[in-house]
Amino acid sequence: MADLKQAMKDKDQDRLRVLRSLKSKLLEREISERKDGEASLSDEQAVEVLMKAAKQRKESIEQFEKGDRQDLADGERAELEIIESYLPEMLSEDEVRDIAQEKINDLGAEDMSDMGQVMGIMMQELKGKAEGSLVSKIVKDELS
Asked: How many Å apart are CA 15 and CA 55, to the nearest integer?
């Protein structure tokens, strides 16, 4: 909220638009999670909302670049940078690979038929710390 107010004062329209959008998405999630009048999101739930918004921007960038619309892709990229500034630092590919190898060894997974089991455990542990697409790619590589 403080950043939203600061963006208003600074007349930073791009940042303001993104922060208002995020505020709206967080409020929607809060309302959908409301139980017994309690209306607050956990940090994990807020990170999920931010990760989803970042993923949407990444997909849009990819589509705009395929459609040769660099101007729109640049706008989405600027929004993505703002969103990522609020996300916790993600694990590197090497860190995810190390965790994947450890889990595969712990489970005794040997081939692609074990991927679902490995992914389930990996995503529970890495929720909010790594993107699912990266985890999936690494698990596939390790099991192949």
From this structure: 18
